[in-house]
Amino acid sequence: MGRVSMAGWKQTQCLCISPWSGLIAIAFGTALSVIAIQPVAGQETTPLGASLPSSSLSTRAQIDTQRERLFNELAEEFSQFDRLGNLVRRVSQLVKPSVIHIEAHKVQGKGASVESYDEAGSGVVLEIAGDAWVLTNRHVIHGAAIDQIVMRTCDGRKWVPERILKDPSTDVAVMKLAPSPASTRERGMRPLPSLQPVSLPPAARLADSDQVQIGDFVIAIGSPFGLSHSVTFGIMSAKGRRDLSLGEERIDLQDFFQTDAAINPGNSGGPLLNLRGEVIGLNTAIASSSGGSEGIGFAIPINMAARVAEELILHGKLRRGYLGVTLDPEFAAAELTSYPGQYASMKMSVDTTDLDTGDLKLGGARVKNVRAGSPAETARLQTGDIVLQFDGHMIEDDDHLVARVGMAPTEQPIPMVILRDGKRYRTEVTLSQMP
Predict the structure, then answer these.
(1) Do residues 402 and 253 lie in contact, with contact meaning Cβ atoms separated by under 8 Å?
(2) Which of 119, 243, 256, 277 has the lowest CB atom count within 10 Å?
């Protein structure tokens, strides 16, 4: 956990100028000294308490009228922002019961070098296969025994994990939710679940994260520095951030959202929401030189995180798709301009609905080698082929194709568009499971 320092308070000198009294008041702490301003020689003055001339009253009335008009205009303009603020408040109130504060007691090292510490994180409740599961990041709970993890909802109730499943390739984990025995004893409840069923926290609603656009307003809820159920607000800054260096974590499948909503240590595993109150991502990491939020946070798209969660729960592991090719990391999409005519015709026919702006841009991943007996060989892919589209998505680079293939379903045909010798071809591939 990070250290939270209180904002220092110190006694200050305040210079307050009253425009109409003709006095300057200087406040030192709680003592107030009043210093009279002497009139300048040769100027006429109005005795204190005497009536102001009618011209002064007229000027004052004009000022008051103008101020009233400005306040009314401000109120009209504020109403537009107030509607946005009201949305944020309603989303926060609606989703908070589905957000989980996680505390994990971890132990590292062996023998004399053993180190134990507590780490706080976040999670969000999903309903999968009829049960309540907490979706979070693997790194939030990694290194903690199942009996050393405690979860809390916003109403203060404690919960424990009944079962934990993790996937290191995506940094996704799920925990089956169960009421804490300690919490039950604290409430004086008898252990008769059939007679006194425990009310589980509500499951969050999920959005289609493929529909998220750059510039969309977003809300993050989590436990920054252990401060549970904190709410921050921002926009979607970018999509498709890959090949990030995330410390000691080895995350092979990356396709992060980027947001400027404040994300700090402890936010990991918490939901990133749209203004409909739907989860669009799982807050995971930050780019920072200070260890705190600097306006660059990363979240796993919820389509990806939810698929991993379902795979873990239903199959015990993520069944990663396997294509069977080696990609050329040195390939530059700009090389496609060597086929200007063919690429222009390809751009007119390939679906581009996954692009934020609707503008077409160069992209693709070049095949360097095709493994014998692989799904790629069965689909007749060849060395030098450039994969332009996979499963309805324009491919930006080799990392993008790796992420798409890894998360794609197996044992069913998936459409592809490739460029070979300057000509565009459509084909299908049936992926197998990663060996």
Answers:
(1) yes
(2) 243
139 as an active site residue: the answer is yes
Active-site residue, 171 included: yes
For residues 423 and 304, state if they share a domain: no
Stated pTM of the model = 0.74
- Between CA 203 and CA 223 the distance in angstroms is 19
The domain containing residue 419 runs over which residues? 321-433
* The one catalytic residue among 92, 122, 171, 293: 171
99 and 163 together in one domain: yes
- The encoded tokens of residue 113 equal 């070098």
Choice among 92, 122, 139, 260 that is catalytic: 139
What are 242-254's pLDDT values in tens digits?
878 776 667 888 8
Domain count, the chain: 2
- Take residue 194 and report the two structure tokens written for it: 């059939």
The model's pLDDT over 374-406, given as tens digits with 9 standing for 90+, comes to 999 999 999 999 999 999 989 988 999 999 999
Average pLDDT, stretch 72-90?
84
